[in-house]
Each structure stands twice: as structure tokens, then as C-alpha cells.
Amino acid sequence: MKPVETGHHEVDLDAALSPELFQKIKAIQIRTQRVVNEVFAGEYESAFKGRGMEFEEVREYQPGDDIRHIDWNVTARMSAPFVKVHREERELTVMLLVDVSSSGAFGSGTKLKNEVAAEVAALLAYTAIKSNDRVGLIIFSDRIEHYIPPKKGRAHVWRVIRDILTFRPSRRATDLEGALEYMSKVTRRRAVAFIISDFLDEGFSDRLRVVSRRHDVTAVTIGDQREMEMPRIGILELEDAETGETILIDTYDKNVTDGFRLLSHDQRTNRNDFFRSAGAGEVAVRADDPDYVESLVRYFHSRERRR
After folding, report:
1. Residue 9 predicted with pLDDT over 50
2. Which of 9, 20, 105, 168 is the most buried (most CB within 10 A)?
3. For 229-262, what is each residue's pLDDT tens digit?
4. If we measure between CA atoms, which residue out of 21, 1, 30 comes closest to residue 13?
5. Looking at the predicted structure, is the pLDDT value of residue 2 above 70?
6. How many other C-beta atoms lie within 10 A of the C-beta of residue 202?
7. Mean pLDDT across the chain, nearest whole number?
8. pLDDT per position as a tens digit, 14-39
């Protein structure tokens, strides 16, 4: 790994990792490569490659050209049929927007939401690199915490995984609108964007609609079963990870547990409807589900069918 310069000294960031963290990153790298080779082969390219079409030229109509590509304005001026020629963009820019706010430090299974978010980001990064695409990273809370410009190569993916897993955010809350606005500023050309978050935020709807018109956006929502259904374990103290506010609830009270389940269902339904209306795709991933990869595969298949 190429060292980076800090002050007057060069520091190898990999050398600064603890043995435990290094092995954890290596394990994710190995698992991700295996999944990409065995499961994702061809799925990603079928779902995303070729969607971007870049205008190349206008030329005179030739027998066999698709009449749907006729440029009627030029045709009228030239008194002869002309068609628009587009070139398929084989190389995509993939942007990963990863939410590192404090609500990700939750999980009822063996992994926390932010750990699964890091694995999903690694999986998508390796898949894109295998298809010769460039990958960039935006880590955000309620501010932009870290940015890596899009590049290619396995060493670059290693850096993306390492930075996601080792990053310690300076803030607890979430600002999705700010993250989307920042991506719009640093990504001028059309990109495939994956927003990996639990989406526990408000006020980003207008910005998402604007970004989705320019870029191919997919929301990867990271959830957990315990956020959908409350266990019956008596008096429970709940703390909002981002605000620190706490409340006491009685989980033996059926009105409380039924109300929680209904509220969670309504929130998911409203979120699904909103993503659809904004022109963004959505794939739901649960941190307590060890087979979350299947959710991504099903989403890729659904995109391919729609194409």
C-alpha cells in the first residue's frame, strides 16, 4: 500500500492497523471477492452496464438506422434526415455514500448495522472494480466526514474498505441532504450511486429527486428485525443513538408493541413509496440476516428485467 504523507513523515496506514482489525479487513476482502466471483458474476453488468449513453455526433440517415434516433430539428434545417449517434459508456463511475452516524451502532444479531454497511460497500466496490469501473467513497454523518475520489484497482478497493472500517466519525447525527448535495458537487458526470444508510433522517426528499434525475441512484437501507418488532421483555429503556434522548416503555403492554409494529410498517411503506416517486431504486438489507447478499442479487435481477 502506498504510504501517505503526514506532516514531514511518511506513514504506512496499513502498518498502523491493529492485527485484529487487519485480519477483519482481510476477511471481508476475501469473503467479498468470493461472493463477487461466485454469485455476482454478470449480475452487476446486466443490471447497470450500458445504461449510460453519451452523445457522440449527428450524421445523415443511413438505411437500417433506427428512425427513433432521427434528430428532427437538424432534419428540418438540412431538408434531409439526420440521426443522433450515441456511444455506450462502458466505464461507469460508482459512488458509495456510507452513513456512519451513531444509529448504525445497533444490531440484534452477530453484526451491527454499520458493520453490514461496510460489507455491502466492500461488495459493491469489488463488483465495480471487477467490471473495470471507477469507485469513489463519501463517508458522512451530519457533515462530510471523508471523501475518496473515484479510481480503479484492487489497492484502491482495499483503501475504501479500510477507511470505512477504521473511520471514527466526529458527529453522531445524520444529514442525507448534505451528503447528496456534496456528491452533486464532486461528481459532474453521470454516476451510479449507492446510498448505504438506515435513512433515519428527514428533509432530504427534494435533494434526492434532483440527484436521481442526473444520476442512477439506489438506496441500500440497512435495518434490523428489532427495529420492526419489539420483544416482550418487560420495562425497556430506549436511547436515541443520535440525540441521546431516552424513554421507558413497557413491552408487556400489547398496545405499545402493536403500535410500534404498526409505526415501523408505515415508515417502511412510506419510505418505499418515496424512493419510487423520487426515481431511486431501493434494496432493503437486514443486519440480523446472514443472507443479505440474496437481497442484493434479487435487486440486480429486478433491474435487469425492467431493462
Report:
1. no
2. 105
3. 887 877 877 777 678 788 888 878 888 788 878 8
4. 1
5. no
6. 9
7. 84
8. 656 778 777 877 787 787 888 887 77
From CA 280, how far away is CA 218, in angstroms rounded? 5
Residues forming a β-bridge with 5: 10
- Quickly tell me which residue has 418487560 as its cell: 234
pLDDT grade, residue 276 (50/70/90)? very high
Which burial class, exposed, middle or buried, applies to 84 when counting CB atoms under 10 A from its CB (0-12, 13-18, 19+)? middle
How many Å apart are CA 71 and CA 258, to the nearest integer? 58
Pairing of strands 134-140, 93-99: parallel
CA distance 209 to 201: 16
Count Cβ neighbours within 10 Å for each residue of 15-34 and write b for 16 or more, e otherwise.
eebeeeeeebbeebbeebbe
Asked if residues 286 and 221 have their Cβ atoms less than 8 Å apart, the reply is no
Q: Say how many Å lie between the first and final Cα of the chain, rounded.
A: 39
pTM of the model: 0.79
**What Å distances lie between residue 11 and 5, 17, 23, 24, 161, CA to CA?**
6, 11, 20, 21, 18
Look at residue 279 in the predicted model and tell me its pLDDT.
Answer: 94
**Do 223 and 198 form a contact (C-beta atoms < 8 A)?**
yes
